[in-house]
Design brief:
Number of domains: 1
Largest sheet: 7 strands, mixed
Low-confidence stretches: none
Number of strands: 7
CATH class: Alpha Beta
Number of helices: 8
Strand order of the largest sheet: 3-2-1-4-5-7-6
């Protein structure tokens, strides 16, 4: 299973690459945050990628997990995960995030770096949260610095306030959050020195000409955050 901009195979990451090893480290930190905050019982890992995160959850807190339904819409990722990260407590399932229905009520939903890819993230949260038991937890993450300009697979840029509001509107309260920071090199990205950088948006200047609001958003971010990508990871609880 080869790496691309949206899915990382830990077996193939290159040491010290921002879009490789450094990005993987952020992903693993998110899953460890989720392991710390998940409720005992049944877990859904929605947009599980190649499966290493679901496997980490079982390895770190398997005695608290009765089963994990690990969902992704990419058939190659699911086939890879089913072999590389097979475990009796994990079912890897090819399904769409918006239409997936768990066969049983969920105690925890984990969906990391998913919302920015969905046309209607609020609808996804509302629909998915209905599958949680009362008191169940929803653990999610998104970029909170601009990403749509650089990543052609992203549909939304989020603020912390806007991100949290989607969950409170769905009848949940915040339990805990962390902010992650990832420095990046513009030179390395523009020269496409890193393997995963070749999947970034082409002709960014042309994109800014057509979307000047995204250029202004990037300028504001550079002034405020410098050459850093930032992410928020939050645990919400269903009231």
């Amino acid at each position: 299973m080869q790496n691309n901009l949206e899915r990382i195979n830990p077996d193939l990451v290159i040491e010290n690459e921002v879009l490789g090893q450094k990005t993987l480290e952020l992903h693993l930190e998110r899953y460890r945050f989720a392991a710390k905050h998940l409720n005992d019982g049944v877990v859904a890992d929605i947009a599980c990628g190649v499966g290493y995160g679901s496997f980490l959850l079982v390895e770190e807190c398997g005695d608290r997990i009765s089963h994990i339904y690990a969902i992704d819409n990419d058939s190659k990722s699911i086939r890879f995960a089913s072999g590389r990260y097979a475990h009796s407590k994990i079912s890897f399932i090819e399904a769409d995030a918006l239409s997936y229905q768990s066969p049983e009520k969920l105690n925890t939903i984990i969906s990391l770096e998913t919302l920015e890819h969905l046309e209607n993230p609020s609808a996804f949260i509302q629909q998915t949260a209905r599958q949680l038991v009362t008191g169940g937890r929803f653990i999610a993450s998104v970029p909170i610095t601009p990403s749509v300009d650089a990543n052609p697979y992203h549909l939304h840029d989020f603020t912390i306030k806007g991100f949290k509001k989607m969950f409170t509107d769905a009848g949940m309260k915040e339990i805990d959050s962390i902010i992650q920071q990832q420095p990046y090199s513009l030179f390395s990205i523009m020269k496409q020195k890193e393997e995963r950088s070749k999947y970034l948006r082409k002709n960014i200047a042309g994109y800014y000409m057509e979307n000047p609001n995204k250029f202004l958003l990037r300028l504001k971010s550079l002034i405020k955050d410098g050459w850093n990508n930032k992410y928020i990871v939050t645990t919400f609880q269903k009231l």
